Amino acid sequence: QGDGREYPDKTFGLWPAATNLITNGGGETNTTGWTVAILTETITRITTQFKFGVASIEIVTPNLAAGEGAFHAFAGAASTQYTVSIWVRGAAGGTVYVSLWDNVTTFQNGTAVTLTGTWQRISVTATTGVASVTFRAYIRTNVQQGITFQVDGLQVEAAAFATPYIETDGATAARSAGRVQLPNPYNYINETQGAVAVLVRMGWTSTVGPSATPKIMRWNFGSATDTIYVFYFVAGAAWYITLIRGGVSTDAFIAGTFTSGDLALIVVAWDRTQVKIAVNGSAFTATANAGIPVVFSSGPFEVGSDNGAVDLLGGDFLAAAWFRASLTNADSQTIN
Length: 336
Known about the structure:
Blueprint: E1 12-14, E2 18-20, E3 34-36, E4 42-46, E5 56-60, E6 69-73, E7 81-89, E8 95-102, E9 106-109, E10 113-114, E11 120-127, E12 135-141, E13 148-157, E14 173-175, E15 180-182, E16 194-202, E17 215-223, E18 226-233, E19 238-245, E20 248-255, E21 263-270, E22 274-279, E23 285-288, E24 301-303, E25 315-323, H1 329-335
Antiparallel strand pairs: 1-25, 2-14, 3-6, 4-5, 5-13, 6-12, 7-11, 7-13, 8-9, 8-10, 8-12, 15-24, 16-21, 16-25, 17-18, 17-24, 18-19, 19-20, 21-22, 22-23
């Protein structure tokens, strides 16, 4: 599924469906598709260092000019936003960046990073030029230097941020949307009283989400007009709980921002009088409840999406718990 997590990480990825447009992301079998950026660099498949699988690509630059490295072409489209990402390491140091290139806009570069003996992921997000027809992903030196470094997990995806690597070895590959459904909790919580805590790891920065309202959870009572949503509102930079009764919404929200990799513990509670939300041990923000949802049928409890296909979280699910209790601010701190 391309969640990109390695043992002992036991989290479950809730990422949107995606396709890695690079056909040979890490040299698992050969170096097919990889081409020197200028002329005299060397590209070799090695098995002594790798981030994924059993091999990686090693690049040696001859110290003749800036911009030395390698590229991999891909089948793209004009006027389309892509994120290029790659894992890099270089025990002897050096500085490199990743670039999106097309025959109209040419190079659009990411931020240069210093290589170390530890694998690190770098990326750039950019939009291809109008009427462009040729597309490449580059990894290059930002200044003239003679260095040896390794790369693995090259990915190009039509997305606003980098998602976990989808391994390729001779062809493009795709990941289906992740989905977590918890057992129906109706014996423990219901439409008149309940509380839920969900712990997730965010995979993006709060200003650039996979959708306008990525979902933390949804509990559907058999009708789109009677349900409970918990989500992040990207444009408003806030966490929300929305309780809908007959199409009438009650919202409680709390402002907050985050960066990729941050943990977020979202705790929500509702009863006949109010709905409320707390994040990472904060005090609750509450709103008077405008109405109790009508229960037509109590369906599965969705975590990280709206019914598995829409508004995916774009991150990792770690844990969830529910309570039939009127939680206090002290409870929020204790749960955190």
